[in-house]
Amino acid sequence: MLGKWSLGLCLLALIAVASFIWVSSVGVKPSYEVSKNIRYGFLVENSTAEYIEEASFRVFAPVKKNSYQQTVDITASLPFDIELDRFGNQTLVFKLSKLAPRASQIVKVTVSLQLASEPQRVLLDAEAPYLVAEENIEVDSPEINKLAEKLSSQGVKIQNIATWINQNISDVGYVAEDRGAHYAITTKQGDCTEFSSAFVALARASSIPSRMIGGFILEQSGRVQAENYHNWGEFRLDDAWHLADPQNNKIDSGYGSYIAFYNFNKHSRMSNSHRFLSYDPRLSVQML
Known about the structure:
Layout: H1 2-26, E1 34-46, E2 52-61, E3 65-66, E4 69-76, E5 81-84, E6 90-99, E7 104-115, H2 142-152, H3 157-168, E8 170-171, H4 180-187, E9 189-190, H5 192-205, E10 210-217, E11 222-223, E12 229-237, E13 240-245, E14 250-251, E15 258-263, E16 273-274, E17 277-279, E18 283-287
Parallel strand pairs: 1-11, 8-9
Antiparallel strand pairs: 1-7, 1-18, 2-6, 2-17, 3-4, 4-7, 5-6, 10-12, 10-15, 12-13, 13-14, 16-17
Helix pairs in contact: 2-5, 3-5, 4-5
């Protein structure tokens, strides 16, 4: 009987130790201590001379959860459905009905967030997708590989990559066309999209998992507007995604101000889209 009790206690101890190791390794209880509320809205108009029985538009909301952000609640002035993909991207789907010709409607969204002051360890998917070439992230470019090799030989890879981009690529202001990492590195110019794609391409070429993020920078609770849209990068280290914004010279800093709306990937693109919203071609949608 004593032997059975001893065996049972040993098994319980092993389970407890294994559970502790698992919790410690994946960060099941990350700390998001900064509360922030954001608001945004859209003016939606029937741009035709015809009566529309039903139409819809879709817009990204802040990502469900990442290493420095957690969405707590979403409310809106109209009913909506939420679609969540495997990358944590959330899409709000609004359906409008009985729109008279040239009629318009304002849709307002409010989101409650909890933000972290430093990266939190979270459950992550495989590294492989964040190391390969994709559209505008030309990891297989000889010029990108040559520069990555040079920067990797000079010490801390991430800091070297970010510093080179910040000091060598000129900000030309907003450009509607996404030109990619190769364009940014060879012409040494671009907007926030080129800065972030250059970072991701150089990081991946240096064997550091990385990805592009789209969203907003907001110091305090308040309204986000289209002109404040921004792209930055993230790199993966110690079971967490760390922030990298070489355009603004912020590497592994700025937490609590960056609000991610979109983890860029080829599987979550919207059709008939502009930045992070998509809509019926009969509609005109403007972010307020």
